[in-house]
Amino acid sequence: MHIEQGPYLDTTNQSVGIVRGIAGPAWYTIKIQGTAGHAGTVPMNLRHDPVVGAAEVITEIEKLCKGEVEQQTVGTVGILQVFPGSSNVIPSEVEFSLDLRDLNLSRRNKVFNQIEEKLDQVCKERGLSCKIETNMQVDPVECSKDVVDVLCEVSQSLGINAPLMVSGAGHDAMLLADITEIGMVFVRCRDGISHNPKEWAEIDDIVNGTSILYETVLKYI
Q1: Cβ-contact 8, 17 below 8 angstroms
Q2: pLDDT the model gives residue 18
Q3: Cβ distance 74 to 67 under 8 Å?
């Protein structure tokens, strides 16, 4: 059992959810190189500005992830660094992180390939060069169908409406899945905030999650 770490349950006013799978994260570092120059002396049409190129790519990342029908692919740029980092210098390089996650590995790979294509296109059009470094790739993990079915059965018997959900955050259960069947119960957290002093879960929601977990364990004894 774990807090959701996201806003879905809180937004839909539901106490707990049942996890059907854990999304696999892929982390990349994307570097775009251009040509440094004086901010006042290089005409706009003669610039090879990697910042503008990076902006195009980052916007495309959001567009591609939002374009998925099931909207289960999520992409995040959490780090953005500009070199040399002076207000009156056209940058020579931009480096940014990409965190891409999905429960469906082929869909995640498809989105990444589309991002690569956009990156190549932008660099070609703007006279830039680029490089992608792969920092981590973790396969998504499906929860045990049997465990999920029992969790659903128990929640219904307790009169608790617990929707099936995908965990976008990683959990220790991903590692345990290598040696045994796994299942998870999510508990609503206020505003979806976690790993933060404002993190909060109501006692009633915790009780509901605990009841489902307890009754499920009894089914396996």
Answers
A1: yes
A2: 98
A3: no
The rounded distance, in Å, linking the Cα atoms of 107 and 114 is: 11
Measured CA to CA, the distance from residue 125 to residue 122 in angstroms comes to 5
- Model confidence at 156: pLDDT above 80: yes
**Which amino acid makes up residue 24?**
G
Note the pTM of the prediction, 2 decimals. Answer: 0.91
Beta bridge partners of 31: 95, 131
CA 138 to chain centroid: 12
Sole residue written with tokens 């933060």: 196
DSSP 12: T
Nearest partner of 145 among 22, 24, 20, judged by Cα = 20
Residue type (1 letter), 56: E
Q: At what angle do helices 105-126 and 50-67 cross, to 10 degrees?
A: 150
CA 18 to chain centre: 19
Alpha helices by DSSP H, listed for the chain, are 8-11, 50-67, 105-126, 145-157, 173-176, 203-219
The first and second tokens of residue 8, run together, are: 């879905």
Q: Tell me, what DSSP letter sits at residue 123?
A: H
Contacts of 130 (CB under 8 A, 6+ apart): 30, 31, 32, 33, 119, 120, 123
